[in-house]
Amino acid sequence: MDHRAAGRHRIPNHRLEVTTFVAPILAGKALLELAGQAWRHVGNPSAAAAQHRRLTPERLRPCASSRPFVLSLARWDFSLANTRQHFLALAIMAAVLGMGRPRADEAGAAIAANGTPAGLAACASCHGAKGEGNADTGFPRLAGLAAPYIQSQLAAFASGRRENPIMTPLAKMLNAAETEAVADYYANLPGAALRKGTPAPSGDGAIIALEGSWSKNIPPCVACHGPDGIGVSPDFPPLAGQPAAYLQAQLEAWQQGKRPPGPLGVMEAIAKRLSPAEAKAVADWFASLTQGTSE
Fold this sequence. Notes:
By secondary structure, this protein is mainly α. The chain folds into 3 domains: about 5-95, no CATH class; about 105-190, Orthogonal Bundle (Cytochrome Bc1 Complex, Chain D, domain 2); about 190-295, Orthogonal Bundle (Cytochrome Bc1 Complex, Chain D, domain 2). It has helices at about 5, 30-40, 45-55, 55-60, 85-95, 105-115, 125, 145-160, 165-170, 175-185, 205-210, 220-225, 245-255, 265-275, 275-285, and strands spanning about 10, 15-20, 190-195, 290-295. The protein has a two-stranded antiparallel sheet. A two-stranded antiparallel ribbon has the order 3-4. It is globular.
């Protein structure tokens, strides 16, 4: 019996030949990286072809820092006619190679619920179990915010550009991977559910939010933050669903220069034109638009 032939495994219709199957050996990081990159190009044959050309035995050769459970692939035969099937095979291999490594969303969920080994407190202790925030204490809603926005604000806290006695030391305890993981986790949680029907503009808060105050050169908030303040990623976060105390505190932070001014310095300029009563009114109005967390 030809042991070499016996060791060959053919996946029907995939035209993927694996001449050698060895596990466990030390290898894997290169394949895991390439498989992840290739999966992101599903439906793009030209990009997929470039990924295939990079999958060489040299890239797959075992290295000392690799994970213990892997597949060693000595020969590849791809046909672009079956691109999607190839990616299925790559995804399966990537899943095997990733055994023991937490997924990014799982890592973010762990940080949110339990904090980090470095001593970071659980995000949920202030921001709620589902990232819904706390209206009584003014801790903001994180659920549904854009991941790039969350990352940029954590970076601002860590650098001191956004001043906050609670968040600054906590943000400094997160490394880049943890920051990305927790941002992605909260971005994928359901955001605030708006109540049906926007009330007619009445009162200073609603008028400023929906129409602006042009006599003071204040544009309507919804011009940047979207209809009913639902947010326009990544620079203009949702206002609807945030606690009134939090929104008011942020306007005061801009007035006092304790928070980066935002794109083109718009928010700092607008905040400084609002009176304390107007800032409270517009914060109260946006906070009143929600009926809770969407399921």
